[in-house]
Amino acid sequence: MSYDENLKGLKGWLVLVGIGLVIFPIRLGYLSGPLFYNMFTDGSFEYLTTPGTESYHPLWKPLLFFEASYNALLLIASLVLLFLFVSKHYLFPKGYALFLFLPVVILPLDLWLASLIPMGDDPLDPSTLKEMVRSVVAALIWIPYMFLSKRVKATFVEGKSQTGSMDSEQTTN
């Protein structure tokens, strides 16, 4: 299958994807870095996770480790995706779709876990709701684009075995 050469390249709507991939790790580090650094260095973590303290709850430790691990995974995944994007690797569209889908599942799970801890605060605060809506909208827009766009199919081909794709085309014809 031959694609028009005008469709190849990190142009069109893919520019927005690229900008998002550059901004995401910076934004994540800016928002989460100080939060988790302070939590693990100023005694907050111990206060929340030590039996006998006023704010102790047995779910704090797993929730905080889950959130820190998830944020670290997102940071690493975003950097890997940025590399795949710039190198136009064939795995990028599927990896990016998964990257966009995970928050749609993980954020409600995280919210549910947080709701099990009596905090006095509503876990569904405006910033959390905004983040959930942002994740769903991004997934609804960009996941179909990754699988339906002719530009995506023409651009992300590096690393794909040419003989493997030719063999599979011959067996279907």
UniProtKB/TrEMBL annotation:
InterPro entries: DUF2569. The chain crosses the membrane at residues 12-30, 68-86, 98-120, 132-148. Keywords: Membrane, Transmembrane, Transmembrane helix. This is DUF2569 domain-containing protein.
